[in-house]
Each structure stands twice: as C-alpha cells, then as structure tokens.
Amino acid sequence: MTRLREEDILDISDSLKEYDQKLVNQTGKSLAEIAAHAIGSSGKRIYELHRANPVGVVPITSGEGIINGFSRSVQKIIEFMGFTSFVTGLKDVGGLAEAVEKGAKVVFLADDDHFVAINMANGKVVDNGEATGKGYAAALDLMSGGLRDKEVLLIGAGPVGAGAAAFMSAHGAKIFVYDVNREQAENLLETVPGMQIVRDFYEALPQYKLILDATPAAEIIGKEYIGEDTMIAAPGIPLGLSQECLPLISDRLVHDALEIGVATMLFDVLT
Ligand code: 2YJ
C-alpha cells in the first residue's frame, strides 16, 4: 500500500466543491451519491439518521508518523458530506479516548498499513482499501451508464481490487482481472467467481474501454491505449496513466487521493 504524501492531499480541503462538481459532470452524481451507490443505500437516509452524531478523526504517529494535512483532509471530506466532524487535539491512544469522550460515534484513523473507520456503537470496522474499490467501481458504473454485461479490465487484485470486483460482479459486469502476482488474482477468483484472469497485460489493455486501475504502479498506461470512449476509474496513488494521457481522457478519468474512499467508508460504516 502506498503511503500518501503531503503533496497528494494538499489541495483537498479547498477544492471539495469543485471536485464534487467534476464528479457530477462525469458521472451525473455527487460524491455523496457515488458513496451511497457504492454501498447500495440511500445517502439521504444515512444523513437523516446519523448527521447529529459527530465523527472523530485521530492523528496517528506510529510508523512513519503524521502526514501533514491528512487528518484535516479526512475531516473536511466528512464535513463536506454534511456531517459534524472534528480532529482530536491529542494523538494516538489519547486521541482515541478524546474522540470517545467528545461523543464520536464514528472514528477514522490511519497508520502506514491500515486506514479504518470504526462505528463505536456497533463495532463495525470498514477498511479504506475495500471501500475505495467499491466507491470507484460505483463511479465507473455511473460514468459508463451501467456495467451490466460490459467488459471491464480490473488491474490489481489487492484490497482495492477486491472491493471493486465485489461491486462490479454484483452489478453484472464481465470482469477480466490482471495482477503482476498471478496468485493474488487467482485468490480473488475464489471469492468473486466468474471473473477471468488476464495473462498478458499489454496484449489485453487495448481490448478494453472500461478500466479500473486498482494498483499503485505508476504510468503503466500510455496514451496509445486511450481511445475516444475509454473510461478509467483509477484510485491508485501514484496514477497509473502517463502524463500525456491526461488531456485525452480528463473528462472520462475519475481519480483522487482520498475523497471517494473516505466518503464510501463513512456511509459503509454507518449502515
Ligand atoms: O495520522 C496520520 O497523519 C498518519 N498516520 C496517516 C497515515 C496515512 N496512511 C496511509 O497513507 C496508508 N498507506 C493508507 C492510505 C490509503 C489511502 N487510499
């Protein structure tokens, strides 16, 4: 799992409105509506039931330590979705205690290996990887006018790929999965049956118009693979597309560092 860098998240707080509008233009739905679609629930209903309950975000110093702006960005995304949220003044164990004392019903916290949302009322734990996969698959579903019976190339069979595969399979997509680690792709096939494994990535790539890039591999997709109707949902950081692809696909590329993942975690942990 890639560790986010300060520059990956620098602009999130100030550009949420703009990003939300971009998502509406691309998918017809807002960030909150994409998250609701990802978990198959009504965002309005979740909001009505839970908006009064504060969400705490706890900075964690373990491992490589605090990423400047990380907790604030998570908190701002939650706030943008209409929920009361706060970053604790204390970090680590003290921060968790502070969040609970201040009445947080949901707590978000991340170290270098895990990023989770915990529902303190019922013990539900949602992992960022799986939620991110579901959220991006929901965005691709909306952007493409529905994935049913359509072929999708899923790149990466880790936690993000697994979340995406679960959503896409439930929505009737024909999934073709590639992972550099063949065994990882085979393992995913056991939990999400009906997918097919792709053996040669660059032989397969030109055959797909719909791509879900769930890998942290940089610049694996060059501009020669971008057609007029190519649509890509790419949660991975760094981005899997080369810089020259961007002008060719910007309105058909969904990509962010945190927003869709955090929004989906919030709705998922509350249902
Ligand atoms: O609290 C902090 O500031 C840090 N402990 C945050 C650490 C953030 N964690 C990561 O970047 C992980 N590698 C997972 C992020 C997954 C995003 N999709």
List the topology elements.
Layout: H1 6-9, H2 16-27, H3 31-39, H4 43-50, E1 55-58, H5 70-80, E2 85-87, H6 92-101, E3 106-110, E4 115-119, E5 125-127, H7 128-143, E6 151-155, H8 159-170, E7 174-178, H9 182-191, E8 196-197, H10 201-204, E9 210-213, E10 231-233, H11 246-249, E11 253-254, H12 259-269
Parallel strand pairs: 1-2, 1-3, 6-7, 6-9, 7-8, 9-10, 10-11
Antiparallel strand pairs: 3-4, 4-5
Helix pairs in contact: 3-7, 3-12, 7-8, 7-12
Bound molecules: N~5~-D-lysyl-L-ornithine (2YJ).
Shape: globular
Q: Give the biggest sheet.
A: 6 strands, parallel
CATH domain topology of the largest domain:
Rossmann fold
Number of helices: 12
Radius of gyration over C-alpha positions, nearest whole angstrom: 18 Å
Return the structural class: alpha/beta
How much strand? 15-25%
Spell out which ligands are present: N~5~-D-lysyl-L-ornithine
Give the rounded overall mean pLDDT: 96
State the helicity in percent bands: 40-55%
Query: What is the H/E string?
Result: HHHHEHEHEEEHEHEHEHEEHEH
CATH architecture of the largest domain: 3-Layer(aba) Sandwich
Instruction: Report how far the terminal alpha carbons are from each other.
Output: 26 Å
The CATH class of the largest domain is identified as Alpha Beta
Q: How many domains in all?
A: 2
Low-confidence stretches: none
Strand order within the widest beta sheet: 8-7-6-9-10-11
Per DSSP E runs of 2 or more residues, the count of β-strands stands at 11
